[in-house]
Amino acid sequence: MRLPDYSAFDDARLVELWAERETLTDEARPLLEAQMDARGLTKKKPQQKAAHKASTLLREDGTRALAIDEEPMDLKRARFAEVAPLLKLQLFSATGRTAYVTAMNRDAVVVHEIASGLFMVLVYDFGASELTVSRGDAKRWGMDDATLFALALANLAKAPVHVQVLEHRIGLAFGNGSFVSSLALKVDELAEAAGIRSTDGYVVGVPNWHALVFAPLPIAPETMASLAEVNAKLFDYVDAVSGELYRVETGAATSGLPRWPVVRPSVSSDLGNPRGA
Question: Torsion over CA of 10, 15, 18 and 20, rounded to 10 degrees?
Answer without folding.
Answer: -100
